[in-house]
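Title: Request for sanity check on Peptidase metallopeptidase domain-containing protein prediction

Description:
We are preparing a figure and want to confirm that the structure record we downloaded matches what your pipeline produces today. Could someone re-run it with the sequence below and paste the raw structure tokens into this thread? We only need the token string, no images.
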Amino acid sequence: MTHNFPKSIRSLRWLSMGIIATGFVMKLFFLLSLLFASLSNAGHSAWEAGATTFTSEWIHIDPSFDFPTWPHETIRYYFNTPQMKTEFANDIRAAWQLWYAAGLPETFRFIEYSRTRCEAAPDDCLLIIAEYGAPSFFTSLGRQRIDPWDRNVMYLAFEGTEDEHDKALIIAHEIGHAWGLLHEHQNPLFWQWAFRGTRSDSLVQFYCENVLGFDEVEHEFNNTLLLWAEDGPCRDQARAYEFGFLASEMIPWGPRYQQPHRLWPHDYDVDWDSIMIYESHSFGADDEHGNKQLTLVRTKDLQVIPEPGTVTELDVFGMLHLYHPRYGKFREVFHNDPTSAWYAVFKDKIKNCLIKT
């Protein structure tokens, strides 16, 4: 039987069908959007690890009482002697230009300052100690006073055989530390440990036995397996520091840090060209032919990590995040955290709290 509905009812019927179809399409779009959602900001920022950032490859200090950053995006530096200023001033400027060339905004400034004014306010300046001798390079992380000078220091000791380009790259690396960047290869998420050494699913393979000074450290242990224990000098950075063992510059960073990687990063997440990464023979002891042995390689096809060629765009992203977080804010440190500057006060105060039993 055919029903002849009035025209108004037929129009209403088509309208209701259109609404149902529109609702279905909207729900479909909503479900699809969930598949492509990349950023979330759920809960209080104190529980988040500064993770609401671009997925760029870098790692830097977690700004804190122990690792303060430089105010106004400016580092003022001065040289230890007028002679070294004459010798290295151009190298310092060339190294800083590599950061600008990689895209660092010129709002960041690395400028020479009066020695007299810096000596009057040492916490506001970076002392550059440059000399010739056995190669050695280390720098304060941010505004971190270091021994034996109790100042913010960049220490540069060149052999004297380096060309201008090599010196600029070395100094550019140290400038990254001065601002607060850490070594790319020391990101703890890149490392997975086995009973003795790194596992096959680690992004890097570490050959501790090839690092300079390994034999001396090994003699301190009756059981050599303890070298790779969780608190062993081939695995724990603080323990390696205790022995003065150069593995401390290779293995995962121990203190708090900021980085954007997901929990299980892949090989392509690492900036293998970063100015802040070590090449594969760094701190390697000589083999029987006088060649430096491998200390660190990529797990993927056991590829050698090359010498950095320049500052990368991702190095710049790390610097920008450290001084300009794009989303949210840095992870907050609670007073009951041992890394908090107020931890000692917190422990003292909590003794006076009434505890009901």
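Thanks, this matches our download. The first strand starts at residue 60 and ends at 61.
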